[in-house]
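If you are new to this repository, start here. Below is one unmodified record pulled from the training split, so you can see the exact layout before writing a loader.
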Amino acid sequence: MLALTGRILPASNRAPSANLGWRASLGSVTGVEIRTARSEDAEAIRAIYNAEVVGSTVTFDLVERSPAEHDEWMAQHSGVYALVVAEEGGEVIGFASVSPYRPRPAYSTTVEDSVYVAPAHRGHGVGKALLTGLVDRARMHGFHSVIARIVGDHDASIALHRSCGFALVGTEREIGRKFGRWLDVDLMQLLL
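And here is the target side for that same chain:
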């Protein structure tokens, strides 16, 4: 892995490259490295994700991911379907990934993103650094569109995506049910 150290620049000021990691220096995220996930990150990623499964509506999974299921998920997020982590002081504090949007071939140039940040590190720019790095990788791999499917009451994720250029393109009403509640999903899109 090549590392680029310095300030993260807006996507318009960066040329696509093979650099897979860099140190973020955006205000309070100084010293956070955004890099491609490695196998040794699996348990930290799983812990961050599973906390959201049991404690929030940001994922529609209802059962925590087992180590075997998580290993399979990580294997699916290599190559063009990027999986990146935010690391600070040797600790994974967040992750982001892109997945195929739909299985039919005509959707192959569209991906869906996911961004998760450990609770103690939210509100400090980590999510934006992750999403910026993820969008750069999607662009580098030739994808045309990134879709975010965000539970309707998750204002922080909506604001994060908006700050990275995503636009609200629709709402799916009462499409999911978790914790005894019907949940809407807002669709946001970024054309690359």
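Two things worth knowing about this chain: The first helix runs from residue 42 to 55. The two ends are 24 Å apart (CA to CA).
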